Amino acid sequence: MRTNKQDTPQTTPRRSDEPIWWSLFSAGGVCVAMLVPAIALLVLLGIPLGLVSAEQLSYQRLHALVFHPLGLGVVLGALVLPLFHAMHRIHHGLHDLKLAHGQLAKWLCYGSAIVLSTVAIALWLLSAF
């Protein structure tokens, strides 16, 4: 009995990096869905209705909040995750339109999200000093 390599089934499936990109996509969508309405309510309704005073949103207080370690996590989430969300949508939109072939579109989309995130974080950190 002779066996060929073609006759033997592949036992291990090919690993994919899609779960990583989908998790960043999901986290970015949740981040935007939670932060944008909260900020809009705070600024657009809270201040005019007198629920939030101008002193509570002063530059010094917001600066201290944004550069606090907990504020750092919120700012990083608000900067980085929506970029990955948008680039994942763009990548799959290009794929649906049959414009993204192979790894080039993936590297361009996710690479630009990484580069833009790095630039945003660097500019944010430079503004601290």
How would you characterize the overall build of this protein?
The protein has helices spanning 18-46, 59-66, 69-96, 103-128. The model has no long low-confidence stretch (mean pLDDT 84). Helix 1 packs across helix 3 (69-96) and helix 3 (69-96) runs antiparallel to helix 4 (103-128). It is elongated. The protein contains 4 helices and no strands. With 129 residues, the protein is an all-alpha fold.
Which terms summarize this structure?
mainly alpha
Topology:
Layout: H1 18-46, H2 59-66, H3 69-96, H4 103-128
Helix pairs in contact: 1-3, 3-4
Summarize the structure.
The chain is mainly α.
The whole-angstrom Rg is 22 Å
Order of helices and strands: HHHH
Note the overall shape. elongated
Give the number of helices.
Answer: 4
Strand content: under 5%
Helix content: over 70%
Major sheet: size, sense and barrel closure?
none
The assigned structural class equals mainly alpha
Mean pLDDT across the residues is 84
Low-confidence stretches: none
Number of strands: 0
Distance between the termini: 75 Å
